[in-house]
Amino acid sequence: MPNPKLIIGTRGSALALTQTNTIADALRRVHLGLEVEIRTINTRGDATQAANVPLASFGEKGIFAKELETALLDGEIDLAVHSMKDLAHTMPPGLVLAAVPKREDPRDALIGSTLDSLRQGALVGTGSVRRRALFSSRRPDLRFLEIRGNIDTRLKKLEDGGYDAICLAAAGLKRLGLADRVTEYLDPEWFVPDPGQGALALQTRESDVQVRGLLSAVNDMASFVTTRAERGFLRAVGGSCQTPVGAHARHIDGGLMLRAMLVGDDGLMRRAEAGGAPGMAEELGARVAKMLR
């Protein structure tokens, strides 16, 4: 019998390829003889990077994922590796989140200055409505400017003097060996991360029992559960690129705690936190969402 072959789809950025190669290596280690092919797929989100089009203008999440999901549904690839925060809150019919490997640091990071050291009226590079709302809750004097592109491009824009500081996900910096560029890690107790930030999502066809079995070997149940709670919250509030929303779950004393924030239509930021059983993670997310409505 020939060795099984797995075709993995990914975006073509340095970070996406690093993440995907890490998953491919992990699968090869646990499934000896597994043949892996990596295919890069350009997404709508990638195509608009150079033009610096604001992410919030797209409305829905998923602009970095839809083409990969289409390739899965069309049978062109067997597995898509996503940064989980890029996924829409609801999977397309026929697809499933099969595994979540061990999560990287979920925090946000400032590069260029600490928050307290930023001058009055400083310019911070971020297109995230969540990050802008959270910064403004502590520093209403700050100004914000859209910044897009891969991590190296954003760091270069900072070095060229276009911004006083920029904000990025800590996980991406760490995966690329750039943790030394971080000036300040932002405490998730107040700077609540994007739901799923720092986690990878391994997505495949719901009907593909063989691939789902292969992926189960690299699933980290603790990460699967925390991100399930966060995505449950996102789904319940109907979060999109235009919604300032954050959620961060963690395991404490055998239970699960979920902290979340949401800026409502009235412009007010609301926060809530609740605990529950790990086996009821999605329900916990929905309960916290109800607290914020």
Main sheet: strand order? 2-1-3-10-4
Low-confidence stretches are none
Number of domains: 3
Radius of gyration: 19 Å
Proper CATH architecture of the largest domain:
3-Layer(aba) Sandwich
**What's the name of the CATH homologous superfamily of the largest domain?**
Periplasmic binding protein-like II
Please give the share of residues in helix. 25-40%
Mean pLDDT: 93
SS strand fraction: 15-25%
Q: What structural class results from the helix and strand content?
A: alpha/beta
Q: Looking at CATH, which topology of the largest domain would you report?
A: D-Maltodextrin-Binding Protein, domain 2
Largest sheet: 5 strands, mixed
Name of the top-level CATH class of the largest domain: Alpha Beta
Using the alpha-carbon principal axes, give the shape. Answer: globular
Query: DSSP helix count?
Result: 9
How far do the termini sit from each other? Answer: 56 Å
Strand element count: 13
SSE string: EHEHHEEEEHEHEHEEHHEEEH
Keywords: Porphyrin biosynthesis, Transferase
Cofactor: dipyrromethane
Function: Tetrapolymerization of the monopyrrole PBG into the hydroxymethylbilane pre-uroporphyrinogen in several discrete steps.
Catalytic activity: 4 porphobilinogen + H2O = hydroxymethylbilane + 4 NH4(+)
Give structural attributes.
single chain, 293 residues, alpha/beta, D-Maltodextrin-Binding Protein, domain 2, Double Stranded RNA Binding Domain, 3 domains, 5-stranded mixed beta sheet, 9 helices, 31% helix, globular, hydroxymethylbilane synthase activity, porphyrin biosynthesis
